[in-house]
Amino acid sequence: MLMNKIILFNPRSANGKHRIPNSILQVGASIHGKYEYVFVDGNLEKDPWLTIESYLKTGEFKYFGSTVMPGPQLRQAIPFTKKIKETYPNVITVWGGYFASNQYKVALNSGCVDYVINGPGDNTFPELVNALEANEDLSFIKNLIYKDNANQIVKTAVEALLDQDTLPKFPYDYLNSFYPVQDYLAKTFMGNKTLSYHSSMGCPFSCSFCAIVPIFNAKWKGMSASRIYEDVKYFKEKYNIDAIEFHDNNFFTSKKRVLEFSELIMNDNISYWGEGRIDTINMYNDDELKLMRKAGCKMIFLGAETGNDAVLKQMNKGGTQTGQMIKDFVLRMKNADIVPELSFVLGMPAKTEKEVYDQILWDINFIKEIKAINPNAEIIIYLFSPVPTEGSQLYKQILDAGFSFPEQLEEWISPSWENFDLRKNPLTPWLKPYMIDTIKNFETVLNGYYPTVSDFRIRGYKKRLLQMVSALRYKYNIYHYPYEIKALHKIWKYRQPEIEGFHSE
Ligand code: B12
Ligand code: SF4
After folding, report:
1. Runs of H (alpha helix) within 19-65
2. Using an 8 Å Cβ cutoff, are 302 and 275 in contact?
3. Closest ligand 1 atom to 382 CA
4. Strand 297-305's sheet: what is its strand order?
5. Which of 122, 203, 219, 172 is nearest to 21 (CA)?
6. Is 247 in the pocket of ligand 1 (CB under 6 A)?
7. Whose CA is nearest to atom 30 of ligand 1?
8. Atom 8, ligand 2: which residue's CA is nearest?
9. DSSP-derived 3-state class of residue 65
10. Residues with Cβ < 8 Å from 304, sequence gap 6 or more?
11. Atom of ligand 2 nearest to the CA of 249
């Protein structure tokens, strides 16, 4: 019997209903039919360690691969990987995903992670396992980071993005033999059975605050509309899905692809949601936006970041976005009946404390202007959390301001760094507690006056009551101590989408 089986682990990332674990699914596709492997989804296991250990105890498993996003996934990824190294020292541990790629130094220095996949693993993972099985040199494998015999970190060449249509099909049926795929199709505000799908890699831009940039370096490649539609059709026929959440970093990059896809699903009665850029989608004409809406595009997540043109420049947003464009755009979206879900990044560094705070107050006002133009526009507020884009001007600025990342892996699961990951408390020295209070209190009042449509439980009298309670505060800019709104949010378990995604059942 071969003793080289592989565990692919998706650490718990959210409470409640869960999404298809696309990261490990795609890695599974890369070794399907070549190596024996199992999926362990921490979202669906009561105690995933018991499942992992039951596999390891057989002695047949030689590789443990985990996907690792920043934030709550670390709570299982770190202790489990550590325990594996202590109890089963011969098992080879491999991490992939955005945390691993961006924070590879702390991961490798911990001693419990043997290999880090730097970006896409579609070729890297099977090549790594092949090379380890054959005891071959690893330095020719692209997208790989590891420590050599001299304990030095080796970062191999970055692979050009693959033609996404040539990737193997996702092993949905195999996943179904571990966890019923049906259970991943959640009820969301868009439909009763929502598929989560990832149809492209990377992003063609290089915003200085974004964790995608150090990995993809402004490159993007998408599957063709027809390849996406093959999978959608499979899910329509087999599970009768009626909604799709596109998890791409920038789904709308290619207008041609979006319009072709919209034409393809036009008569399937499927709603869809995806992430895009304002200046990209602003190039679509009104008829094209209407076509997308007709095909089912209900809401688009857009990085507005700020309405302040000088800060947009500091963020290196690229493209042509301006504050005025955001205003014009939300009006166009209103006319096209597509909800713009705008994310703002507040708390960027500035020369003086006053400047930092003034920018925050300025953006709060800007958000209110947006709401006045299009009350249906959804607003997501993040606090600026630095990402290690080495060499960037902004990264230099934040290091100069006294910021540094943890040097021990375990530190990342301390509550304060978890909040950093969740972009709720970024530990950046220029952002003072009173500024965070202003932002959070404004957010509470905003969510009271305009509850998100994505939490479909908050409607009717609940929505009216929340709005009534918040109206005066919103109108007269009285944001401090909004306890009464918080209490209602708590009682109704109001869920903002920015941490765990849309509310789903
Ligand atoms: C879906 C998703 C979620 C879901 C969880 C999904 C799940 N698995 O259960 C939810 C909504 C819960 C979520 C939450 C958060 N997320 Co999230 N999420 C995503 C999203 C949109 C898609 C991930 C995905 O499935 N990708 C598809 C797969 C195929 O791509 P991939 O993961 O890159 O995998 C490839 C490679 O990375 C590599 N690989 C990945 N894992 C592994 C493992 C092994 C063993 C190997 C060999 C290779 C490998 O190979 C794969 C194939 O090529 C990404 C953005 C994106 N487009 O990827 C953000 C993203 C990963 N999330 C992010 C963040 C910050 C969060 C949050 C921390 C905070 C927040 N405010 O958004 C929270 C908290 C996380 C938590 N609760 O643990 C950031 C990470 C940025 C960073 N700083 O590193 C991203 C990049 C979004 C962004 N642009 O900011 N998220
Ligand atoms: S456009 Fe969005 S995904 Fe792309 S680099 Fe900028 S913030 Fe990141």
Report:
1. 22-31, 48-57
2. yes
3. 71
4. 194-197, 243-246, 271-276, 297-305, 339-346, 378-383
5. 172
6. yes
7. 23
8. 210
9. strand
10. 278, 326, 342, 343, 344, 370
11. 3
* Domain boundaries along the sequence of the chain: 5-155, 185-383
User: Are 5-155 and 185-383 the same fold in CATH?
Assistant: no
**Which of 392, 320, 311, 411 has the alpha carbon at shortest distance from 359?**
311
Q: Would you state the structure tokens that stand for residue 292, as one six-digit string?
A: 């997308």
In short, whether 198's Cβ falls inside 6 Å of ligand 1 is yes
CATH architecture of 5-155: 3-Layer(aba) Sandwich (3.40)
Which pTM does this prediction carry?
0.91
Q: Which atom of ligand 2 is nearest to the CA of 277?
A: 1
For residue 283, how many other CB atoms are within 10 A of its CB?
A: 12
Check if CATH label 3.30.40.10 holds for domain 185-383.
no
CA dihedral (198, 202, 206, 208) positive or negative: positive
What is the identity of the amino acid at 6?
A: I
How close is the Cα of 249 to the center of ligand 2, in Å?
A: 7
If one residue of 7, 19, 23, 381 were mutated to test the ligand 1 pocket, choosing by the most ligand atoms within 8 A of its CB, it would be 23
Beta-bridge partners for 9: 40, 66
Does 73 contact ligand 1 (Cβ within 6 A)?
Answer: yes
Q: How far is CA 476 from the centre of its chain?
A: 35
Ligand (nearest to CA of 213): 2
pLDDT by residue, tens only, the chain of 505 residues: 568 999 999 999 977 668 999 999 999 999 999 999 999 999 999 999 999 999 999 999 999 999 999 888 999 999 999 999 999 999 999 999 999 999 999 999 999 999 999 999 999 999 999 999 999 999 999 999 999 999 999 999 999 999 999 999 999 999 999 999 999 999 998 999 999 999 999 999 988 778 888 899 899 999 999 999 999 999 999 999 999 999 999 999 999 999 999 999 999 999 999 999 999 999 999 999 999 999 999 999 999 999 999 889 888 777 789 999 999 999 999 999 999 999 999 998 899 999 999 999 999 999 999 999 999 999 999 888 776 666 667 777 777 877 778 889 999 888 877 777 666 666 788 888 899 989 999 999 999 899 887 777 777 888 888 888 788 899 989 898 898 888 888 877 877 666 556 666 5
